[in-house]
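Narrative of accomplishments. A recurring question from our advisory board has been how the design workflow behaves on a single, concrete structure rather than in aggregate. To address it, we present the structure tokens for one chain from the evaluation set, followed by the sequence designed for it. No filtering or post-editing was applied between the two.
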């Protein structure tokens, strides 16, 4: 459960960081948001974390 809380916090952080560039990161925001929603029903923590790491690197690169 602790991992879910961590990933949710990181997801919220990345969505906040990219809210000014909604169109630029539209696909990534949509996908990471879907992981967030699905986490209530599906065990997708590994995939979610891997995508989140990729998305965070993408944002840092800009």
């Amino acid at each position: 459960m602790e991992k879910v809380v961590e990933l949710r916090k990181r997801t919220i952080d990345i969505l906040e960081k990219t809210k000014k560039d909604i169109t630029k990161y539209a696909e990534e925001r949509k996908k990471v948001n879907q992981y967030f929603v699905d986490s209530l029903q599906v065990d997708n923590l590994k995939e979610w974390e891997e995508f989140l790491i990729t998305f965070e690197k993408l944002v840092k690169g800009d």
